[in-house]
Specification:
about 375 residues; alpha+beta; Rossmann fold; D-amino Acid Aminotransferase, Chain A, domain 1; 7-stranded antiparallel β-sheet; 13 helices; globular
Length: about 375
Amino acid sequence: MDILIAGVSVRGFVESAVRSGLGHRIVAVDHFGDFDLRLLCEHRSIKRDLGLSYDVRHLMTACHDLTFDTVAYTANLENHPSAVEALRRGKPVLGNSASVLSSVRNPARLFNFLARSAIPAPEIAFSSKVLELEPDTTWLRKPLRSGGGHGIAVHAPGDRLERDAYLQEHLNGTPCGAVFVADGRDARLLGVSEQLIGRKEFGVDGFRYCGSILGRVGAGQMAWGDLIGRVEQIVGAIVREFHLVGVNGMDFILTSGTAYPLEINPRYTASMELVEQAYGINIFDAHLAACQGRLPAFDLRGQSSAGFFGKAILFATDRVVFHHPQWWFDRGARDLPCDGERIGVGRPICTVFSRGSSRGECYDGVIEAAAAMYRAAREKDPPREDG
């Protein structure tokens, strides 16, 4: 079967597809056209091959003459159901349909359902008048077509609320992500991770997503088994209401022992490759099986001894010219620019990984990997290795 995988960045999902050993022919289209994506399959890059910035219309242009039997997608196509419908050209979609996307990505529908189901969640509003009614609440302004924390900011009195944005109550706590696979009726929770948000050591601030730490999240707030059980209940209810299929993610805030859902990401998410590393689940295989109505026999409660697995997406703090992608690839870095590629301030450089027996050890490891990459990005030669 020929499978088209399309989105802003598809390397992780494509790597999982190739690693699955299922033998499908994969054709990839994304913005970056990373060095390591080139090693995996036939691909096309909006930036390299078309010389264009990322836009869903440009993604459609890059896909228009490709042949395939079915299509799968990554971010940010969940925000563009009509593009998913056009992209599939009447062929099957491996994942959530356009109608499902339109429903679950509508914050009014999602949060109305959470309220009806007595699932604790932050308040939302579609008018700045709520600031006058609840002046002691901190509100975040979020784009309706959100992703990766882009465009999220604290909304202050006097700020304009655009028509394509809404307000969400800001809750202090640990930002988390849940990974689950669904068959439209039921779900299996595959992992829970702490999200790294706005970390200056990775070149971002504010509410930008820049990585994840997968492991026993929430130590000290609630027992691991209790957290798993609560998240399972939440994602199970959402799957039954919105008929989600395949692999999906849920962003939530963990505070005072309660998980507060923030949004559903009804497609492959960034922390899923950590699930593969930690638990040996092939995400692409699980995705295809769930789309066909089969869920894995997996219980996250039995994985407590796996340790902690981390990743960080590094963003350029200065203009750099990247060198030696093969050297970095051989040492585990991913989403690598091609040799000699110029990267502007604020643009992603690559992804680095770490593993540890504790959260602190894992986080320190990803900090060290990031620091080594930033040093090398300012130089022409790869770092020296001891021994």
